[in-house]
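Incident review: delayed structure delivery

Summary: a single-chain prediction request sat in the queue longer than the usual turnaround. Root cause was a stuck worker, restarted by the on-call engineer. No data loss occurred. The affected request and its eventual output are reproduced below so the record is complete for anyone auditing the incident later.

Affected input:
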Amino acid sequence: MELFRGTAPSPSFLALHRAGLTGGGQELVDFRVPCNPYFPTPAMFAVMAVRLRDILTSYPSSAETITAELADVLGLRPQTMAMGNGSTELITWIDHLLVKESLAVPIPTFGRWTDQPMETGKRVDMFQLPEMSGFALDPNAFVAFVRSRGSRAAVICNPNNPDGGLLSRRAVIGIMDALADLDLIVIDESFLEFADAEAYPSVVDEAVLRPNVIVLRGLGKNFGLHGVRFGYLVAHPALAAQIRSRLPKGNLNSFAEVIVFMLKRYRQEYAESLRMIGRDRQLMTTQLAGLPGVTVYPSQGNFVFVKLPGGTDGSWVRDQLLSQHGVLVRECGNKLGSSSQFMRLVVRSQPDVQRLLTGLSTVLYGTSFYAPRVGWEQPPSLDAGPSGHAGYSDYAGYPGYADGASASGYGVSASAQRQPLDLPYQQPPAELAPAYVAMPPAQPPLYQVPAVLPQPPMVQFQAAAGQGEAAGYDRVRPEETTIEQLPVQGRQPDAGVPEPSPMERTQTMTYDPAEPKAAVPDPAFLGERADDPMGQAPALRRYPRPAAYLQDDSMA
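Output delivered after worker restart:
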C-alpha cells in the first residue's frame, strides 16, 4: 500500500491498475472520487466512442466558442464566465490574481483552498468547523472570525467537501453582505447540482452583480468526468474578464468541447441522473448509519461523511477494504481539520454499496452480519414534499434522521440544527435474510472470526388478531449485542477519558501565528432576505434570473 503513503490525497485509478492491485481478484470499486454513475448516458459514451479518432486527432475550438455554448445552456452571458482546465486551474489563477495577503476558509474543506495560498506565501486563516454540531458552518461565527483575523479574502464551499453540509441561499447572501468590504469572496458550488434542499440554492445571480464575488463550478464533478478536466466560474463581467485574460490559450480540450455541445440534447437525462443520485444518497446514508458505532453526517453532495468507531485507524480500514474486498475509500487523515477516523464515501448504486457495507462490517466487526441487504425495508418516498423538491422532506422525517437536516434547517442557525445520524441497529426479518443468522459472540478473540458462530435468536413475529389472511405482525425485538462487546480495530483497554487534543480545545486555527490585525465586535445578526420564488427549473439552468447580466428570454 505504498501508493497511499505520498503527499497526494490518493493514487489515481490508473496508477492502481499499473501497480496490479486487483482487490483479491475482484474488480475495483471506487468510493473515493465523486462521480455521477448515471451520466453521461451509455448513448453519450457511444457517440464519443464513434468520434474518438476525430476527438483525439483534432484541435478543439477556441475557449470563447466553448464558453459561449455553455453560457447558452446555463442561461448566462459569456461575459460573466471563464472556463478552465478543471476547477484547480481556476483556483490557481484566483489565488495569483485576487488573493493579496490573506484568506479565511472553514476546515475541513477542499484541499486546494488551503494548499494553493500557502504555496504562494499567503496567510491562511482556518476556521475549524465544530464536530459537535455536525461540522455545520455558523455564518455569524465565521464572519466574526474573519473580522478578528483581519482576513482580506474568504472562501465557502457550499455544499462543503468532505462533509456535504449546505448553507441556504439566504445565509450565503447574508455572509456576502456582511463581508462586502473584502477584496474577494469565493463561493465554491462545485457540488451544488446534487443538493435538493432548495429549488434555487445557487447565488450565481448575486455574483454577477457584485464586484468582489466569484462562484466556482466544476463540470467534471457533476458528470463524473474528472479526466476531461473542465470547470467554470461566474462573476461580475470585469472580474470574469480579468481571469479570462490570464488563462492560457487552448486550455480546453476536444473532449470538453464535445460534451458541452451535447448537453442541450441530453438535458433531461442529466436531470434524471441527479434525482437518482439523491435517491441513492438516502438509502446509502441509512444503511451506513446501521453499522454499530459509525456516525453518519447528513450530506447534500454526492458523497457521505462518516466517522468510524472510536479508536479505529482509518488508514488500516482503507488498506483492508482494498486488499480483501476490492473497495477504494477516501480516508481523511491528511485533510486539515479532520483525522484518520473519518472517511468520505461517494454515493454509488446499490450493488457497489453492498460490497462496501459487507467490507466495512467484516473489517470492523469480523463478520458480515452487519451488512444490511436491500429489501429489508422500503426507502422513503421520492414524491415531492412541501418544498416542491422530490424526496428531501420525506427523508427528513425518516427515523433517526436529524431534524436540522430538513429543508428549513439549512439556514443561518445551521450549526445548531445539523446533527449526525445515529440510527439504532435493526435486525432483519428472518424470511428476508435467512443467510445472515450469525451474531458475533460477546467476547471473541480480537479481530478473528470464530470458525462456527453461535446462532442468535431470530426476530419473532406475532400475528395481529382479527386481520385474517392479511394479518399484520408485531415485531418482538430480542436483546442485541452492545457496541462495547464488538471487537474494533485499534481499540485500547479502558483508560479513562483521554485529554482533549489541541484540535478539540479550539474551533479556530491559523496558518500564520501573527496576532490579529483588528478586533471588531461581533457583527449584527445577518439579516434575512426574501428568497426567489419557488419553482421547478431544468437541471443545468437552475439559477434565478436577475435584471442584469443574464440572458433575456429573447436571446435564449
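Verification: The two ends are 52 Å apart (CA to CA).
Action items: add queue-age alerting; document worker restart procedure.
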